[in-house]
Amino acid sequence: MAVQSDMTLLYIVAGYLAVMLGVGAWAYGETETAEDFMVAGRSLGAVVIAGTLLATWMGSGTVTGGANSIAYDNGLIPAILMGTASLIGIGVLKALAPRIRRFDKLTVPEMIGEELGDEGRIISLLVIAFAYVGIVSYQFIGIGFVLNVTTGLSVTHGTLLGTALIIALAAMGGLMSVAYTDAISAFLMLVGLVIAVPFVFFEAGGWSGITADVPATHLDTFGNLSFLEFFALWAPPLLLILADQNMYQRIIAGETDDGTNAGLIAWFVGAIATMTLVPLIAFASRAMFPELDPGMALIATTTTLPTWVGGILLAAATAFIITTGSSYLLSACTNLSQDLYKGFVNPDAPDERIFWLTRILVVVLGLFAFVLGQYFPTILEVQMYSYTAYGAAITPPLLSIFLFRDRLTKIGGLTGMVTGAVLAVSWDTVLGSPYGLDAVIVAAPIGCVLIVLVSYLTSARSSPSPTRA
């Protein structure tokens, strides 16, 4: 079966995008300070926190990469098992949420800099900006897929339009606009997925029809992947979510501790649903469209559904992609304005200047992300590369700060951080994946071991930091 573009779906998507831009315009008027822009003035309730956490995490990486691509290319069971990484991460973040909120810092580099000094802060902000620009780049491509299906427009031209939409939403109201559009999008996505699954399975010929038309290996535990290949795909999302600045900022943005806790629980439940339903649809898509780019798997099925069902699902997928792109773009710009400019270049910069600098950087980094996205052959590839760089360099030192702060030394943290970053970037590209191992299998574990080992060896010569509790 070939994918046929359907302009009717575009009208539904366009209507939903108009609603999102309307919320962005409202948030523009509500956003007056840098704190409003970065953490929504710490005013978010439980429902909005749950929605913004779910929508930010389940963006293009879910509906066009990650579980979607794996279900289409490798098999159903490994795609569903991929979701366990997110669930473990959410559980850890819920346990750490009280400490994160008490830390009273707006960004991850500020948290790391508190313990590892200016060196740690600079390294972390550069790594985060690099990784997040990569993540933003494939959100742009995800919109290109949507517009290709709805209008027949080339993916490249659709990506250009997606770039403009994401930049506009992020620049208008910061986290205030992103959080509320996230909440709406998350609800719509869950409803759309629940409604769409039975329709997609019917169109694909039911379970027996689907399993007859997909490769036999797609029903194995790890599909056509080896265990190490599966682990190399499973580990990066876990490493990212454990230290993802977007998640930390949303936890900080909660108005109350109880509301934040309730929002985290709802996020966990929503993630279970999403990470099960998306693979089911993408798996059915393999039987319906055997020659697709894997990133198109879920989106392509919307053209076979009743218009109202396909429209809801496509609008929700589009919203997830756009709000995730806006979130990561905003977060990267926050690092450059708050941590780099105010932290080192101009510590006395007035709040208004930081506020407007962040908006300008949204446009600049957004354009850079578009260019970067043109150099990766698949969404899954850039997704794993970005996740690995972040997870190897940021997650080990950040978790060390929260879990054994009194035993961590500056030189230990920096040694593990730098080693993880260098290995993540060079292992596959420069060294050519020695022994056939993926970068994530090597970089993050070595970084963790070095943090513990070097901290132990240097602790006797290091006096406790006066900032430690």
UniProtKB/TrEMBL annotation:
Residue spans crossing the bilayer: 6-27, 39-57, 77-97, 122-147, 159-180, 187-210, 222-243, 264-288, 308-333, 354-372, 384-404, 411-427, 439-458
Cell membrane among keywords: yes
GO cellular component: plasma membrane
Keywords: Cell membrane, Ion transport, Membrane, Sodium, Sodium transport, Symport, Transmembrane, Transmembrane helix, Transport
Annotated GO MF terms: symporter activity
Gene3D superfamilies in the record: Sodium/glucose cotransporter (1.20.1730.10)
One GO biological process term: sodium ion transport
Membrane topology qualifier: Multi-pass membrane protein
InterPro entries named among the record's database cross-references: Na/Glc_symporter_sf, Na/solute_symporter, Sodium:Solute_Symporter
Cell compartment(s), UniProt: Cell membrane
Pfam families with a match to the protein in the record: SSF (PF00474)
Family stated for the protein in its record: Belongs to the sodium:solute symporter (SSF) (TC 2.A.21) family.
Protein name (record): Na /proline symporter
